[in-house]
Specification:
The structure holds two protein chains of two kinds. By secondary structure, chain A is of the alpha+beta class. Chain A is built from eleven helices and 23 strands. Chain A starts with a helix and ends in an 8-residue tail after the last helix. In chain B, the strands form 14 sheets. In chain B, strands 27, 31, 36, 37, 39, 40, 42 and 46 form an eight-stranded antiparallel sheet that branches. Chain B has a five-stranded antiparallel sheet with strand order 12-19-14-15-16, with no helix packed on it. Classes of the chains: A alpha+beta, B alpha+beta. At the A-B interface, helix 1, helix 2, strand 3, strand 16 and strand 17 of A face helix 2, helix 3, strand 20, strand 31 and strand 36 of B.
Chain lengths: 536, 914
């Protein structure tokens, strides 16, 4: 083949250029230690590197997360340990308090004093804070103390049931706390028990308090259980002479005790439960009876053709039958209060019943409902219009002056099969402080002490089981840490395989490439020296 | 002798020409585009020597030839075009290739440290420094997006600038070729004389032009060459050249007289083609993917942030700038070259970031019609067609986008380019500045009552969505600082519960719309609320339900047939609109006369998208039994409640006159303990009327069967009880009718319907006696709460669970965990790609493209070099060859000179002999 002179130079040029760029690339690889210098070198590897780096970054973060979780759980463990010790000490005290035959009320006073100190200590432990100032047993509401004493030996929990979790690996997140409710409030009780609380809507200032209460007759209470009770204070005017009084209803709305006079120094005892409401509860307002006065009563003789009229109070309606002559308001009232039939089979004998059913009283002036619920008379006829002296047809007439009683402060006795740790201790303390030097009182105390010991055992079981869980979570953290470390090691290995340079291979390659380059250079020098002109 | 001399002289001339040509070759050995020349000599016509024949009369130079292979030249141009296109592409893609993968400049590092900061925040939600770090990282992440976008924009600007420079060169070369055409035509006017060096120059100009763009050169008869490019646009015709230019928007136009055409899409090859390919290809993709990532990230974080509660207990604010900021909506649209007036207003908003693609779109109204076509430009597929309605604004939805034609004279021929993602990387901006504003907590708090007897537990609860299907904020979350309403779940039995509005915890009241008699399956996660934003509920509130006004007790012989519940025959038409396809289907149901609510619910529940729950309730009150002895029996659905012992009432039965409460409790217990009634879902509760305090016995049958309540009693004294359906209808009184006769009344059930998104109900008659007026506005009430929780375990009747607003939740990190989850969750590409997946894919795509550009460039370079070699081999000057020629022609010259010497000697000899 014919070769032109410039070809000789071109060929050498191309050869040296290629060899040079190869040497250059290899030496760049060697100096950075990286095999893939830009994604174009190996696009698949470049994406893997990106992914692996991200994975490694995540693993590093998980390690930090695990540390944070570990700190939190260890702090919880420490707090729980102290609480377990404290409860054990309380059990010892309880066992001592069981010696009702030997101990005197004075001894009990001193034991009660120690219990009270311990209660305070316990509350402090239950209100433990972490390094960020968050209460660790408050659920999600870490900013405010979860446990507080409301007076009267009653304690309340202000936190929630939230549980913070921390992500410790791609698929695992671990709870790093437990709510105080679960740990210290929802403790299974050895007997059917109850919790007392004042309604959050109470208005009295200073607020009236309800004591923690005790069960004085377990059998009576068991019979009522699981009913709840609500003590509502009523307007004093409901009693004559007016005085503070309350009504107790159950959770089905049935009245257990109505308008009982209230004396704050006397405990209230009902269904085997004893408690005390102290202070001046807001009494509320009495109901304004609803009245619907008769108008000008016209004479109608219903005995010839009995007619009906419907009375409605709230969601209840009754149809009353008029079957006797009505000449004046007294007749009308009598007809409405009728317990006999003037016309045989008319059914007017049920009228009195029906009125009672609706809570309506009928007298010479008109109809009234004492509880303040407005009443309606409707579905009548022209004759009943005349008899009542107001419109009774179709929609009829409705009283407008009735006002329901505004309930006063209320307190709840809520049945429960759980009893909080603080409540248990507080009940023990109260029982010890109230003990008298007689066998009945001591027997009662003995009963309380027995229940307390059972419930302290339950509390211990509860706390210890959570401790077990905390331990298990710490184990999970450890496993996750190991697993993360393994994954990290593996990922790093893969990353290194993909990304890092094989120095042995690279230096051999460099050796060869530089040889190629120098060969190209030498051959160029040789070839370029060849020219016929040298011989002319 | 004279012949000899003239022969020698001709030889001298020939060799002189040859030496000159060799010298010309030597001197042009390094001239670009030079083709070596060669002289051809021929013998001059011979003279006739009588009969002897002819005697030679010397030589002459016939021609000076270029050694050229036209095929090789054409091939070289093609190879040059290819190489230059790839080389330009390769150089430019190299700029973004490293940019994306580099830890310091790429997104991967930014995403990594941002999410690490979020995790840190989740570890300690109340920590202000941890929160501050997220704010800072969010800023630096959005800065990184902005920087990358700016780099892309810079690269694009440079590409356009380079295109401008290249076109200037193309125009110069075209002009040059046209001029050379002129000169060549002038100089080769007569005979077959070739102006070799001009031809060389023209070939060189063509080659240089082929570096810049793909061309076809066509030789004409007059020795001129016409140059065409791309799809056949003429660049040079004879002595005329057209001019290219690059518009401000980076489009290449070719000026042909007064007409100017956009030829950007027709270009191929050469530097210009490589630049356009790069800009419209991978650069666009990279920019769009970057934009999509920015948009998805901003949208997902904003949504999550807005679903949470910040440290002040407020609903979270946006973390990044709104992806549908009004300012951006019209900037995503580029108007084409549409006819005036220039009054069209459009906006493009992003409705579903998960569906978003990286493609641009073309919205075109077909010429002379009202029909539009939306084309996805990445693959040219027409994804939506339809009509311009003319009523504005008109909205068109496709691939997660909503195009709104706001106003203007839209008409046939209009064309718009839609770029939803292109500028996403530019506009992402961190908006939060206060660490407290990070919404780490979930707005929902759940709790269980300490008094609960059962083992039921409620999950922590979660927010599903803060907005309904139209993007309007749900009433639940409309008021800051509270859930509207908080709810309480109350178990009415072990298998039924109701959900009530807990705004006033002392007096929970029904929700709007109510949720009553819901079914609970013990031992399983029971989800409390529906999850579809468009779901509705219809309540069984028709006038003929229950124990309607006007129904009286009947007297039947003991054990006689039950009263019918009086339910009418009605037609129920369910209309279902598929939310995906928009297809409408209907299902018609005709109710049977006197059908029980249980059966009706069963029938309706078979319609897909509808679930029905039935229940029956009744209240027994005013129990007044004066004859407390046989015959006395109260019967519910055929089950006798009062126990007898050998024909007389058992002593277990309390006397209703003296112990009304105990008697009522006895009835409640008898009902609740009866296995047959239990199987029908019966339960009874002995209570007192909330207003009057009178005792009443509440009965519920959660199955929805008709309740058949009977009294058999003496008719001498007063023996009665009242029944009502607990909904305000008047009481019906059952009275003793003597032995062998029962006073009976039937209470019917109710059916509540839950309709899935897109399902509606029409009734015939429209004013249904079962469900109420189906034309009423509030017939079907929206029931999507926007939050969710589930209860598992075994709750007992009376147990309650609350869902309320999560105020003061400084230690709640649920929403922060959800944010951290966004790092790996598949939030893009229809649920197939995560953020880093998408970014990794982009890096891979650019890398692959770059790698293939690199190897293709190398291949093209070798091909070009091979062809160059071929050309050199044919046309290149070889100095050794020329040196040999010099010697050869010098010797010929010398020989000819010798011939002249011989001639002179002969002449001298002749002269001397005279």
């Amino acid at each position: 083949m014919r070769v032109s002179t410039s070809q000789i130079y071109n060929i050498a040029d191309v050869g040296m250029r290629n060899a040079q760029s190869a040497v250059n690339k290899t030496s760049e690889q060697i100096s950075t230690g990286k095999r893939v210098l830009s994604p174009a070198d190996d696009p698949v590897a470049a994406t893997s590197i990106l992914r692996l780096n991200q994975e490694l970054g995540r693993l590093e973060q998980y390690d930090k997360n695990i540390n944070a979780a570990e700190n939190a759980l260890e702090q919880e463990e420490v707090a729980l340990d102290s609480i377990v010790n404290l409860v054990q000490r309380m059990k010892e005290l309880g066992v001592r308090a069981g010696n009702t035959g030997v101990l005197t009320p004075e001894d009990y006073q001193s034991i009660a004093a120690e219990v009270d100190t311990r209660i305070e200590e316990l509350m402090n432990l239950q209100n433990t804070r972490n390094s960020s100032g968050q209460y660790i047993f408050a659920g999600h509401q870490g900013d405010k103390a979860p446990f507080s004493a409301d007076g009267g030996g009653n304690f309340s929990y202000h936190g929630d049931e939230g549980q913070m979790r921390i992500q410790v690996s791609n698929s695992v997140n671990v709870p790093v706390g437990d709510s105080g409710k679960r740990l210290f409030v929802d403790i299974p009780s050895g007997h059917n028990t109850f919790n007392t609380r004042a309604s959050s809507a109470n208005q009295a200032n200073p607020p009236a308090e309800i004591s923690v209460g005790e069960i004085v007759d377990q059998e009576a209470y068991d019979e009522f259980y699981p009913g709840d009770m609500k003590i509502t204070f009523n307007a004093p005017e409901t009693l004559t002479p007016p005085r503070a009084n309350y009504t107790i209803t159950d959770d089905k709305g049935r009245v257990l005790v109505a308008n009982e006079p209230h004396d704050q120094s006397d405990p209230i005892e009902i269904n085997g439960v004893r408690f005390q409401v102290t202070g001046q509860p807001y009494a509320g307002e009495a109901a304004t009876p609803a009245t619907l006065d008769f108008g000008a009563v016209g004479a109608v003789d219903f005995s010839t053709s009995p007619e009906t009229v419907t009375l409605t109070v709230g969601t209840r309606s009754e149809t009353l039958l008029l079957d006797r002559p009505v000449n004046n308001a007294a007749d009308l009232a009598a007809a409405l209060n009728s317990t006999t039939e003037t016309v045989g089979g008319s059914g007017a004998d049920r009228n009195a019943d029906k009125l009672a059913n609706l809570g309506i009283t009928a007298d010479g002036t008109g109809l009234s409902v004492t509880n303040g619920q407005n009443l309606t008379v409707r579905n009548g006829t022209a004759n009943t219009d005349t008899a009542f002296g107001f419109a009774t047809q179709n929609e009829g007439s409705t009283s407008t002056d009735g006002e329901l009683a505004e309930p006063g402060d209320s307190f709840h006795i809520e049945s429960s099969n759980k009893q909080g740790l603080l409540t248990t201790l507080s009940r023990l303390s109260e029982a010890m402080r109230n003990v008298e030097a007689n066998p009945e009182s001591k027997a009662e105390l003995g009963d309380v002490v027995a229940k307390t010991l059972t419930n302290l055992d339950n509390a211990l079981t509860n706390v210890i089981s959570v401790q077990g869980e905390v331990g298990a979570r710490l184990n999970t953290l450890e496993t996750s840490r190991d697993l993360n470390a393994d994954t990290k090691l593996y990922s790093e290995e893969v990353l290194s395989d993909i990304e890092n340079l094989d120095y042995a291979e690279a230096s051999t390659r460099l050796q060869m490439q530089s040889m190629v380059l120098s060969a190209a250079q030498q051959s160029f020098v040789k070839v370029s020296g060849l020219s016929l002109f040298n011989y002319l | 002798m004279a012949g000899l001399l003239s022969n020698a002289i001709s030889g001298l001339q020939v060799s002189q020409n040859a030496l000159r040509t060799a010298g010309h070759n030597i001197s042009n050995a390094n001239t670009d585009g030079y083709n070596r020349q060669r002289t051809d000599s021929i013998a001059r016509p011979a003279e006739r020597l009588g009969t002897a024949g002819y005697v030679g009369s010397g030589a002459s130079t016939q021609s000076v030839e270029r050694m050229v292979d036209e095929f090789v030249n054409t091939q070289l141009r093609t190879d040059t075009t290819n190489f230059n296109a790839l080389d330009k592409y390769n150089t430019n893609i190299g700029k973004i290739d490293k940019l994306l993968a580099n830890e310091a400049t790429g997104l991967a590092g930014g995403l990594k440290s941002f999410f690490a900061a979020v995790q840190n925040g989740a570890d300690d939600p109340s920590s202000s420094p941890a929160r501050q770090l997220i704010i800072t990282e969010a800023e630096s992440l959005s800065n990184r997006f902005n920087t990358l976008y700016d780099r892309f924009a810079d690269i694009e600007r440079n590409v356009v600038r380079e295109m401008d420079a290249v076109t200037t060169q193309i125009n110069d070369l075209a002009r040059n070729i046209a001029d050379l055409n002129q000169s060549i035509m002038d100089k080769s006017g007569s005979g077959n004389v070739q102006p070799n060096d001009l031809l060389d120059q023209r070939d060189q100009a063509l080659r240089e032009l082929s570096e810049l763009t793909g061309i076809q050169a066509v030789r004409q008869g007059d020795n001129s060459i016409n140059v065409f490019m791309g799809q056949g646009q003429s660049l040079v015709v004879g002595t005329k050249a057209n001019a290219f230019s690059v518009s401000n928007s980076g489009e290449v136009t070719l000026g042909q007289g007064t007409r100017v055409r956009n030829v950007t899409d027709d270009l191929s090859g050469g530097q210009l083609g490589g630049l356009v390919d790069f800009r419209d290809g991978i650069l666009q993709t990279a920019k769009n993917e970057l934009g999509r990532l920015a948009i998805v990230l901003a949208d997902e974080f904003n949504r999550q942030q807005q679903q949470g509660l910040d440290l002040d207990g407020d609903y979270g604010q946006r973390m990044f700038r709104d992806i549908n900021d009004p300012e951006l909506l019209s900037q995503r649209i580029e108007e084409g070259d549409n006819v005036g007036p220039n009054d069209r207003r459009l906006s493009l908003s992003i409705t579903d970031t998960n569906q978003l693609t990286t493609s641009d779109y073309r919205f075109k109204i077909l010429d002379n019609t009202n029909n539009y076509v939306i084309t996805r430009l990445s693959d040219g597929e027409a994804i939506q067609q339809g009509m311009i309605s003319g009523s504005q604004p008109q909205t068109l939805n496709f691939e997660g986008l909503e195009l709104t034609l706001e106003s203007g004279s839209f008409q046939g021929g209009d064309s718009f380019t839609l770029k939803p993602t292109s500028a996403g990387g530019r506009y992402i901006e961190a908006e939060l500045t206060r660490p407290e504003d990070l919404a780490f907590a979930s707005p929902v708090r759940t709790g269980s009552n300490t008094g609960n007897q059962g083992s039921g537990s409620i999950s922590q609860g979660a927010v599903l969505s803060k907005v309904d299907r139209n993007g309007e904020i749900l009433p639940t979350f409309a008021t800051p600082g509270q859930l509207s309403p908080p709810v309480v779940v109350r178990f009415t039995s072990e298998t039924t519960y109701e959900i009530l509005d807990n705004s006033d915890p002392a007096n929970p009241r029904p929700l709007e719309p109510p949720m009553r008699e819901q079914t609970f399956v013990p031992g399983r996660e029971n989800v409390l609320f529906g999850t579809e934003p468009g779901q509705t509920r219809i309540l069984g509130e028709g006038s003929r339900l229950g124990l309607p006004d006007g129904r009286d007790a009947q007297v039947v012989p003991t054990g006689g047939a039950a009263q019918a519940n009086g339910y009418p025959v009605e037609q129920l038409r369910f209309r279902m609109t598929d939310p995906e396809t928009g297809a409408v289907s209907t299902r018609n149901l005709v109710t049977s006369p006197n059908v029980s609510a249980a059966n009706l619910a069963d029938q309706i529940s078979r319609v897909s998208g509808v679930s029905a729950n039935a229940f029956t309730q009744a209240t027994l009150s005013d129990i007044n039994i004066e004859d407390f002895n046989s015959p006395l029996q109260i019967t519910v659905n055929g089950e006798d409640l009062l126990e007898y012992q050998g024909g007389t009432l058992s002593t277990k039965v309390p006397n209703p006159q003296t112990e009304p409460g105990a008697f009522q409790d006895y009835l409640a217990e008898r009902i609740s303990d009866n296995p047959n009634l239990k199987a029908l879902g019966f339960r009874a509760e002995s209570g007192a009327n909330a207003i009057t305090g009178n005792p009443e016995l509440r009965l519920v049958a959660s199955s929805g069967v008709d309740m058949d309540i009977r009294l058999e009693a003496d008719n001498t004294n007063l023996n009665q009880l009242s029944v009502n359906d607990s909904s305000g209808n008047p009481d019906v009184r059952l009275e003793g009718q003597g032995a062998g006769s029962q006073s009976t009344v039937t209470v019917g059930g109710r059916v509540d319907l839950s309709l899935a998104d897109g399902v509606t109900l029409e009734t015939a008659p429209s004013s249904s006696q079962l469900f109420g007026d189906s034309t009423a506005e509030d017939f079907a009430q929206p029931s999507f709460m926007g939050f969710q929780a589930s209860i598992k375990g075994q709750p007992k009747a009376g147990d309650t669970f609350t869902l309320g607003f999560n105020n003061d939740a400084s230690n709640d990190n649920r929403n922060a965990l959800a944010m951290a989850d966004l790092e790996t969750s598949k939030v893009m590409g229809g649920g197939k790609l995560g953020l880093s997946d998408a970014y990794g894919r982009l890096v891979e795509q650019v890398g692959t493209d770059s790698a293939s550009a690199r190897s293709n460039t190398q291949a093209a370079r070798s091909l070009m070099e091979q062809t160059q070699n071929m050309r050199e081999s044919v046309s290149g000057v070889n100095l050794d060859e020329e040196a040999a020629n010099l010697i050869k022609f010098e010797q010929i010259y010398n020989a000819n000179s010798r011939v002249i010497t011989v001639a002179r000697d002969m002449f001298d000899t002749l002269l001397n002999s005279l």
